[in-house]
Amino acid sequence: MTMSESLAIELQFSGGMELLFDNKKTIHTKVPAHFRQGADSHAVTIRDLIGWMASHLLKERPELFIGPDGSVRSGILVLVNGADWELEGELEYELQDGDEIVFISTLHGG
C-alpha cells in the first residue's frame, strides 16, 4: 500500500442498500489511507471503512447497515473486487487504491 493520504475507491449498492445511501447505486469516494487509534496508525481496513461510511455517507437507518458488532449486518453480501469478502479477510482486508467494494442486501420483502 502506498503511503498516500487517501485511497480512491468505488462503492456499489444494490438489493435495496442504495436507499440507505441517498439512492445512489455507485459512489466514487476517497477514504483516508491510514486510521489513527490513540498513538497507533494502521492501514485502513473494511472495518474502518464501515465506520467511515456510517459517519460520512449513510443517510438513514444505520441499523439496516451496521450490526451490533460494528460489521455489516447479516443478510448483506460484501464483495471486494468481485470476490466474496470472506476470501479476502473480511473486516481485516486492507483497502487498496482503486478497490471496488459492493454491498448487496439479500433480504427482501415479499
UniProtKB/TrEMBL annotation:
What would be one Pfam family of this protein?
Answer: Urm1
Q: Name one GO biological process term.
A: protein urmylation
Report the pathway entry. tRNA modification; 5-methoxycarbonylmethyl-2-thiouridine-tRNA biosynthesis
Principal subcellular localisation of the protein: cytoplasm
Q: Which GO terms describe its cellular component?
A: cytosol
Instruction: Show the cross-link location (Glycyl lysine isopeptide (Gly-Lys) (interchain with K-? in acceptor proteins)).
Output: 110
Q: Which InterPro entries match?
A: Beta-grasp_dom_sf (IPR012675), Mopterin_synth/thiamin_S_b (IPR016155), Urm1 (IPR015221)
Name this polypeptide is given: Ubiquitin-related modifier 1
